[in-house]
Design a protein that fits this description.
- This protein is of the alpha/beta class.
- It is 41% helix and 23% strand.
- It contains 13 helices and 15 strands.
- The strands form two sheets. Strands 7, 8, 9, 10, 11, 12, 13, 14 and 15 form a nine-stranded mixed sheet that branches.
- About 2% of the residues have low confidence.
- The structure holds 4-hydroxy-3-methoxybenzoate (VNL).
- The site of 4-hydroxy-3-methoxybenzoate has 15 residues, from helix 7.
- 4-hydroxy-3-methoxybenzoate (VNL) binds next to helix 7.
């Protein structure tokens, strides 16, 4: 074989071995593709609905052109089933030659896909899933949502400082639940509190009756709860049905439980629930007011929740990075995502260049009726812990 032939042969072999978006996109002047994988059906469909709406709002407000090229978002439904997420991601990377994969409604779907991001050098923007370890599963993962250690630690601290001494924890029985349980527990005990019991409910089709009976029997000062977005309303209903809202057991939680997607319809049982999170639709900033108004106008009045903001900010990170690389993907695109600082509807945020995780303010909020906002139920912020890094990475 002459030298030229050999080089061509090697190039073809390399392309076959690494059908990566970076290699293909470099020579391409066609559309830049973003593969958006979300649960549009099944138990986590509200997360898909919120993020999809936020991504569409971003594109409507910012246009579908970056660096002179058209941006195309390809939305796929994985039903929150990890095997489906992985198969869809593979197709998007190999067949559609996307520059970015994004979305990921629940932790198992993000973890199942992480190795593909690494192998193909495709930046993977996690807009929802919130187990601390996700960003360690691939160097190509950037997260724009939050982590459970980030939000569970501040509410433990608040509880200990507010005369709550004996707590039962209740979490969904998988990754983010384990994080919430562990980081609430360690902060609360460090502050001198006592954990009476640690309860868990299955991720799929949870029945809260048996665990709530344990709470009735043990009469703790407070029940701390983490459940994924979409389960809060069902939990609140059963909490009230058992009379727990009038029993003197205080309900405290992460903001996943008092989720803006469902909060308006939860009723009086939610009133007074103190919780911690990074986003409230009632966050009093000009940027947020504009975001909420535009989101509601485009979606028949639907109120954006923290998932929507994770999607909206994820698009910001992708667009800015594409501007920097002039549309190039791979390592360059990943590097351009690192270190971004901007004002999100939630407040100031940073994509930590070392961990690729989001650094953000965490708010302590109380559910109240807000006369200035149609007398609806909202998470009203009354305290803030500034620039919180994921405590899960500091162990
Ligand atoms: C996760 C974490 C999912 C928090 C959630 O809602 C949530 C996750 C669907 O990492 O699976 O609120």
């Amino acid at each position: 074989m002459n030298k030229k032939r050999r080089l061509v042969g090697q190039a073809i072999l390399a392309a076959l071995a690494f059908p990566s978006s970076a290699l293909v996109q470099a020579a391409d002047t066609g559309p830049i593709k973003i593969g958006l994988i979300l649960p549009m059906t099944g138990q986590s469909a509200s997360t898909g609905r919120q993020i999809d709406a936020a991504v569409k709002l971003w594109v409507a407000q910012n246009g579908n052109k970056v660096a002179g090229r058209t941006v195309e978002v390809i939305l796929k439904d994985d039903g929150a089933v990890p095997d489906a997420t992985k198969r869809i991601a593979q197709e998007l990377i190999v067949n559609d030659k996307v520059s970015v994969i994004a979305g990921f409604g629940i932790t198992p779907t993000a973890l199942a896909t992480a190795p593909l991001a690494t192998q193909s050098k495709t930046p993977m923007v996690v807009m929802a899933a919130a187990t601390s370890s996700i960003t360690q599963a691939s160097d190509f993962i950037v997260r724009t949502s939050f982590t459970l250690p980030q939000v569970a630690t501040p509410i433990a601290d608040w509880a200990a400082k507010n005369k709550i001494k004996r707590v039962i924890t209740l979490v969904a029985d998988y990754g983010p639940g384990f994080d919430a349980e562990k980081f609430f527990d360690s902060q609360f005990r460090l502050d001198g509190g006592q954990i009476l019991d640690k309860l868990r409910t299955p991720l799929k089709a949870p029945d809260f009756a048996p665990v709530l009976q344990k709470v009735v029997d043990a009469k703790p000062d407070a029940l701390f709860v983490f459940l994924p977005s979409g389960q809060g309303a069902a939990f609140m209903k059963q909490f009230a049905e058992r009379g727990l809202d009038k029993s003197g057991v205080k309900l405290i939680s992460t903001g996943d439980v008092t989720d803006d997607d469902q909060l308006a319809d939860m009723g009086d049982v939610a009133l007074g629930v103190v919780n911690s999170h990074h986003y409230s639709a009632a966050h009093p900033s000009a940027v947020n007011k504009k975001f909420v108004e535009a989101f509601q106008a485009a979606n028949k009045g639907m109120r954006p929740n923290f998932m929507a903001v994770g999607g909206y900010d994820g698009m910001r990170v992708i667009y800015k990075a594409l501007e920097t690389t002039k549309g190039e993907g791979g390592d360059k695109l990943l590097n351009a995502m690192k270190g971004q600082i901007f004002e999100s509807p939630r407040g100031a945020v940073l994509i930590d260049a070392q961990t690729r995780d989001i650094v953000q303010d965490v708010y302590i909020r109380k559910v109240e009726r807000v006369p200035a906002m149609g007398n609806g139920l909202y998470n009203v912020e009354f305290d803030v812990i500034k620039a919180v890094k994921d405590p899960g990475k500091q162990k």
